[in-house]
TrEMBL record:
Pfam families referenced in this protein's UniProt entry, alphabetically: Na_Ca_ex
InterPro entries: K/Na/Ca-exchanger, NaCa_Exmemb, NCX_ion-bd_dom_sf
Taxonomic superkingdom: Bacteria
Annotated compartments: Membrane
Membrane topology field: Multi-pass membrane protein
Keyword set includes Membrane: yes
PANTHER family assigned to the protein according to its UniProt record, in alphabetical order: INNER MEMBRANE PROTEIN YRBG, SODIUM/POTASSIUM/CALCIUM EXCHANGER
Chief subcellular location: membrane
Transmembrane residue ranges: 76-93, 105-127, 133-154, 175-192, 246-267, 273-290, 302-318
Organism: Bariatricus massiliensis
Protein name as catalogued: Calcium/sodium antiporter
């Protein structure tokens, strides 16, 4: 029965993402807001709901190690698998706005997360020992950064709307657009939960550890909305929506989800989580360089991202 739930979850994710992309794109046109803004906010928030559900629930239950591994694993999956698979379908033209502002910001907040959690204990990290904590103060700092991010996005959206005032766009009626978004989001969240629960139960049957499940099965499951949404967007030529979804989702994951989780209950992690943060920064810089150099993510780069993820998967499986 668990395998049927897994398949049903995938169906919900795929159809939900299809509806959600169409509805969000239509809203962007109705509001005369660039699709990249919608991707960085509405779509990113919607597809980050499974991560939020898992991580905040884990925080309330005092299982914050799952919250951290889920977010780090999801962000890694977003950068390498989501962008890699999307680029394989169609080269992703990168937005100059994202490469100049949001992408560097996502790298900065990952470095900030590392600093807030590690306390700059370089010698202990190098020795592979010690416990590290992202406390409530750190969580509040992340939430403040999230508020700043939202303010900048809203300000940019209002400016863009004023600049494009008077232009005519073909879009669905407002009520239909809203219905598409609500139905799509419901399918994404419900499908994501079904996939996570089913995959976790299957993984546990095979005796895999909780940390490994958090970094892989749960992270992959909660990132399926980003994967499906970005691939559907890429297929439909909504490149800004695909890239904005990934970058925006990574920002939401760190600032909103880990910020909220740490504010609820301090997060204690081991040195492996610190290593994962460092790896995430390196991979973020790699993807950033690729997206900025040719102003697009090609199919070759998509293949490279997928191979890098396989190497990372092998690393966390064997450590």
């Amino acid at each position: 029965m668990v395998y049927l739930f897994l398949i049903f979850g995938f169906v919900l994710l795929i159809k939900g993402a299809d509806f959600f992309v169409d509805g969000s794109s239509s809203v962007a046109k109705l509001l005369k807001v660039p699709a990249i803004i919608i991707g960085l906010t509405v779509v990113a928030f919607g597809t980050s709901m499974p991560e939020a559900s898992v991580s905040i629930t884990a925080a309330l239950q005092g299982k914050n190690n799952l919250a951290v591994s889920n977010v780090l694993g999801s962000n890694m999956f977003n950068l390498l698998i989501v962008l890699g698979a999307s680029a394989l379908m169609r080269p992703i033209l990168t937005s100059e706005t994202v490469t100049k502002r949001e992408f560097p910001f996502s790298i900065f907040i990952t470095a900030a997360l590392l600093a807030l959690t590690s306390g700059f204990a370089v010698s202990d990290i190098a020795a592979g020992q010690g416990e590290y904590t992202l406390g409530r103060v750190g969580g509040v700092i992340l939430l403040i950064l999230f508020a700043v991010f939202l303010f900048v996005q809203v300000k940019g959206a209002l400016k863009a709307r004023d600049e494009h005032d008077g232009e005519v766009y073909e879009a669905m009626p407002p009520l239909k657009s809203a219905a598409f978004i609500i139905i799509g989001l419901a399918g994404i969240i419900w499908g994501g939960n079904l996939v996570v629960d089913s995959a976790t139960e299957i993984a546990q049957r095979f005796g895999l550890s909780q940390t490994f499940i958090g970094l892989t099965i749960v992270a992959m499951g909660t990132s399926l909305p980003e994967l499906v949404t970005s691939m559907v967007a890429a297929k439909k030529g909504e490149n800004d929506l695909a890239l904005g979804n990934v970058v925006g989702s990574n920002i939401f994951n760190i600032l909103l989800i880990l910020g909220s989780s740490a504010a609820i209950s301090p997060i204690v992690v081991d040195v492996n989580a610190i290593y994962d943060m460092i790896i995430l920064i390196i991979i973020s810089v790699l993807v950033y360089i690729c997206s900025k150099s040719q102003k697009e993510l090609s199919k070759k780069e998509g293949i490279m991202f997928l191979l890098v993820y396989l190497v990372y998967f092998g690393y966390i499986y064997t450590r």
